[in-house]
Amino acid sequence: MTESMLDRSAAWIDGTAEVSMHGLINASAGGAEEVGERVALAEAFSNVVAFDTDDGLVVFDVSHHLVAPGVVQALRAWSSAPVHTAVYTHGHADHVTGAHTFDAEAEAAGAPRIRYVGHEAVPTRFDRYQQTAGYNGHINMRQFRLPEPAWPTEFHYPELTYRSASAMEVGGLTFDLRHARGETDDHTWAWVPQRKAICVGDLFIWQFPNAGNPQKVQRYAWDWAVALRDMAAMNPELLLPAHGPAIAGTDRIRTVLLDTARALESLHDQTLALMNTGARLDDVIHSVRLPDDLAGKPYLRPTYDEPEFVVRNLWRLYGGWYDGNPANLKPARDVEIAREVAALAGGADALAERAERLAESGDLRLACHFAEMAVQAEPESRRAHEVRAAVYDERRGAEASFMASGIYRSAMLDSRAALDS
């Protein structure tokens, strides 16, 4: 017998099975699994949650355009009811670009047009995505290990938006939509009282919260924690996330929500305490740590984002971009610094040699600085690129977070390409 989604999530929380978020590329083999009364969740690259109401389906998110056909097929195996309303939990591409597939399915079936709902900041996000498509494409290439930049520029804008809260009635169910800043500034979570369920979007993702992300815009750790505590106060019996399996049971749900809130609050409070003493960013980054009792939680492992990046985001939110080092206020170009250091050291090869020794001793953080300076000082040096590729290859293997390993992998590939040219 196939293990149910709720049994799987219970085992993850209880520690009797390892959390595994890998392989969610298409709708799950079990299709859209019913996890509550007339409530289903189709696991995919981004999940789709569906409520079967007397007026049709209300879905939360429409997933990524590459996997949306499989998600629609999975939902149709569960219910033939037309989709009445689609709520965007936020405007990230993996949650919204499946709209065309949902719209095409409704049109082919002769069903009414789907109503799209989202926070009022979602349209602004879509506008920004069109303006920064090239930049986001390069981020995607590094982060998701794509062969070339890729980013969508067409979006289905929501027809109905709200500012702070909105009670939406559809087919006998109430969808209490709440705005929260967290991973994004346009996030929506929902309380469905008749089902004692919360739709949390990306506010809980079975991994350490994506509240840092070195390549993306501002995140909001404190606001995120407040939203998690507001959710827990509802005493929900069903938690429906946009990534990973649903969770049943008030106690388990409260545990994961409040543990995640405490983790964000701890980083927030430690960072602000140091900032208020006049500490530099460098001191803050290397001082703030997640409490041990939270760092060991299976659903808070830094496999995508990580606490160190959250600290940087908090600094950016409260302190701006100046890091406290006067030399960095109006710095020299990196390449000029690298050339000067190389001249002092005896050449780029000497820097590469030092990087290699540091890596061998286990100091990969410092090794990366010397490897990078070696290549910047002498971009044509094969020795420098050989060492740089090797150091970043080792560094990516030592990192837990997908974000860090993706950036280091990209640097490794750059040097390998230079060696092949």
Which helices and strands appear, and what pairs or packs with what?
Blueprint lengths: L4 H10 L17 E5 L2 E4 L5 E6 L2 E5 L7 H11 L4 E5 L5 H4 L2 H10 L6 E5 L2 H10 L1 H11 L16 E3 L2 E6 L2 E8 L6 E6 L4 E5 L19 H13 L4 E4 L5 E2 L1 H26 L5 H5 L6 H4 L11 H13 L14 H12 L2 H13 L3 H14 L4 H17 L3 H19 L1
Parallel strand pairs: 4-5, 5-6, 6-7, 11-12
Antiparallel strand pairs: 1-2, 2-3, 3-4, 8-9, 9-10, 10-11, 12-13
Helix pairs in contact: 7-8, 8-11, 12-13, 12-14, 13-14, 13-15, 14-15, 15-16
Provide the residue-averaged pLDDT: 96
Biggest sheet record: 7 strands, mixed
Helix residue percentage: 40-55%
Rg over CA atoms, rounded to whole Å, is 23 Å
Kindly report the oligomeric state of this protein: single chain
Secondary-structure element sequence? HEEEEHEHHEHHEEEEEHEEHHHHHHHHH
Q: Strand portion, in percent?
A: 15-25%
Q: Low-confidence spans: pLDDT under 50, at least 5 residues?
A: none
Number of domains: 2
Shape: globular
Distance between the termini: 54 Å
Query: Count of DSSP helices?
Result: 16
CATH architecture of the largest domain: 4-Layer Sandwich
What name goes with the CATH superfamily of the largest domain? Metallo-beta-lactamase domain
